[in-house]
Amino acid sequence: MIARRVVELAEDKQAHEIVLLDIRPQSTIADYFVICSADNDRQIKAIVEHVDEKIQQEYGLNPRMEGTPDTGWIVLDYGDVVVHVFNQLQRDYYRLERLWSLVPPVVVVQ
After folding, report:
1. Cβ partners under 8 Å of residue 20, min gap 6
2. Which domain CATH number covers 91?
């Protein structure tokens, strides 16, 4: 499953507070959200580049990408899987897990 692989790849680059949500019961925009945090812009960039490179190599997928490391939030949209990489300030502000609180997490990595 691509979503679980994204969780592993984010862990490779020391992302923290990683959450995998199965949003299928609540939404048609995607099947899964992967949400994770990074400590700084450089780490956001490293996580995004690593995930993008490996998912391209392993699954042949290229995401639609929005945001930049300096905005504190980058979204990688693989269609069925949407990956959100936040700095802590933006994650606290947008609180996606709270927005999707009716959806139980599939994986949580502190």
Report:
1. 3, 4, 6, 7, 32, 33, 34, 105, 106, 107, 108
2. 3.30.460.10
